[in-house]
Amino acid sequence: MSKGILQKKVEIQGLATAILLPSVGVFGGPIGSEVGEVGPLTCVVGIGLFQRTVLTLQRAGIRQLIVLSGPDEEQLKHSLSKGPRVTIPVRWMPIREFPLDDPRTWEALAAEVRGFALIASVNGVFSRGLIEQLRQDVRDGHAIVVTESRLQEGAPPRNSGVRVTIPSPGLATMASARLDESALQVAELLVVPASLMNAASLSTHEKGRTPVRQWIEQVAGDGRLHVVTAEEKRGTWYQPVRTLDDVERAEKKLFSSLKGEFEGFVDRYFNRKVSRGFTRLFLELGLSPNSITVLAGLIGLVAAAGFGLGTYSAGILAALLFQLAAVIDCCDGEVARLTFTESPFGAWLDIALDNLVHMAIFAGIAVGLYTTQMGQEDDWVPLALGGAAVLGNGLSFLLVEKAQKIKSALGWRTPAHAAWANVMLKNVASRDFSVSLIGFALFDQLFWFLLFAAIGSLLFAGAMVWVIRPSAIALPRL
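The structure corresponding to this sequence follows.
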């Protein structure tokens, strides 16, 4: 059997289908009762809960959605028509025709599922990493429940819902929330095998409630319940959203989860901290990630022009403007990830404008130093250093583009080359030198900054050639 057929079989039998319940909770409660203060259209960082759930599932590899909708079906459809495109098929099944307390509804759903189904309400925000973890953890005949972390910062304890206890490895049991407060709170997110959804699997049924809890109790008693605890530090977090306070907690977790692929020390501990406020402002203004990239680039070019004036005060102001550009440059990626609007062009535009600004900064410093030394015997040195810095930066940009193509084609000849390439890409994407530039400007030592920039950019370009040349030669020519 070929590798492609095996992969297709795994996908079909794995977790590729999600069943969403926008109007009700997964566990308990009369069908049609209000979930809480918020609803599926409540915005969290500019996107409604329902739309955010759908887009997160899509990004995590879910290939089919079934929505058991209530009277707000048209509003939910309209929410998906705005913003990022939903590319996976969505099937709408109205609750009035497919009651959630009718086992025949779930039997019909089971016929649409190949392998496993993820069942979720739309009263929570969760990470893509959590869904990817669930897709990896599926096992034949086993169900999976997601439990919330015991430490929900600032959240009051909940005395309702479903809890689970784990008395020994491989065995989990359900518990009443009021009887065992030490048990883990079960999130409105779980995975069940299609076989469990058949009506024949239910020995008893309670009118007016979903059968989900009965399924979980059944597999827990058989020792076939797997528990995944949502943890923010692992990127597999989950935040219930039932009240307006929960909305704030969800937004806080979303912002905390933001991190670029490559970050330096200053980015992590300063730029990202400051950029959060700008990101919120840009989201309220409705600016696209690409427009934020252009804004950061324009501020950087203004800073370069300031360096070109050659005065001490202009140099300090230009360095501060460049630092502002570095902060705003963090926001485009943050807005893109929060609103699911990442794109290959946006990533290219970001790195292209970054390098354009860097070359303009080097050129501006060179011109500013030249104007202050004009007429002296060695007045040409700043121009030579500026030219070398610009050349090294330009070569580095072209080589990084080549490295990205090799990476996307999985063309690294050895793991060592791949590791070195990651180190180099991290350094070229780092904005840490913006802070050092402020120091050089304050001490009126921009000449030394330009010298280090010229030497560093040329050395970096040479190192990139050494890293990518063997893999570039090994790539097949198309």
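The CA atoms of residues 144 and 345 lie 38 Å apart.
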